[in-house]
Structure formats: C-alpha cells, structure tokens
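Usage example:
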Amino acid sequence: DTEVTQTPKHLVMGMTNKKSLKCEQHMGHRAMYWYKQKAKKPPELMFVYSYEKLSINESVPSRFSPECPNSSLLNLHLHALQPEDSALYLCASSQTTSNNSPLHFGNGTRLTVT
Amino acid sequence: GQQLNQSPQSMFIQEGEDVSMNCTSSSIFNTWLWYKQDPGEGPVLLIALYKAGELTSNGRLTAQFGITRKDSFLNISASIPSDVGIYFCAGQPGGSQGNLIFGKGTKLSVKP
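Running the assembly step on the lines above writes:
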C-alpha cells in the first residue's frame, strides 16, 4: 500500500462542474506534487509545493487550481475542464525538494471529463 | 528542455530470464530513480541512486548510476510473472526543486 493516499480513485465530471482531488501523506514530507499522466505516457509535472508554498507551476491552465492547506494535505480544484484533461492525476511527496529526496507517488485519481 | 532516452520501449521475455534496460541523457543528473507502474496504480519507487558509479541492489533488481552522470541502467534477474509492468527511469538535475525528468518507459511482458 502506498503511503500517499488520493481520493477519489475515479471521477467523472462534466465540463461545467467544479470538483476537487485530494491527497494526504503522513510521512512528515514537506514537498508535495501534482503530476498528470496520459495513457502510455510518463507522468508530467504540474505543480510543486515546498513547505506549503507553491514553488513550481509548469504553465498549467488556470482551470486547475492547487491548494496546500497544511503540510499533510494537497488539493487540486478543477473547474470548467475540457475532455482532453481526462487523465490519471498523481500526487507525490518527498522529504524536501532536494536531490536526495526521492518522490513517493499515490495511486492516482482517474479523471474522465465528459 | 532536458530529455531522457529510455530503451528498450518494450520487452517480451520468458520467465526466468534476466532483463536489462537503460536511460541516457544529454545532460548531467544528480539523482537517478527507477520506478515500476502497474495498471491503475501510481509509480512505485524501486531504487534511488545519488552518486556517480553507485551500484545498488533491491532483491533481484540492480541499478547503477553511470560514471558520467548521464546514464543509468536497471537489471532484473530471474524474472517472474509479477515483474510485468512499465518501468520508468527518472532523473533530477541539480537545482531542480524536485522536478523529475521521466523516461518514456519500458513495458515488460513475461511469459510463464
């Protein structure tokens, strides 16, 4: 079992809906990440939070809005998504963003936008 | 931007055979990571490498951080059916603030 927990496991939403993806870790990690993974492709970085502050935004459209309420939680708020946003959304955490802190991934939320 | 070349793209092997896959980069990385991803799940960390020349084992898996810091390989010995999945290499350049560069993956199929 992964120590990074993501909910929900599956989500189907319409293009006018607002929904949120949630991620939780209790390993005391201070860096948390959102990745997007399309079928048969590697994960692509979306956002990095370091000590609860947004440190990297990989030019992600504003219809994706991350939030880090505390060091254990990471949310991704979704609004007015497009069908091409359908993908597996992976949360990850690491002790810090330094090079000797490997990322640990959750099992993802499979998102389908209709 | 930086890219990783991972090969082979896919492998079909017989149970019991050894497997080797590798990643190369045009630039230097400070960290090399190897992950395995099963369908419907997230990537699971197999081995982390932090020093050039480092050779690390995890059970039947062995990985090395290339001496030039631009490559890494993963070997799996005596493959078993549960080794099936997609293996990703990932590298962290210096000052990357946690950003991983992923290879495109090696899909491993094992025939019993």
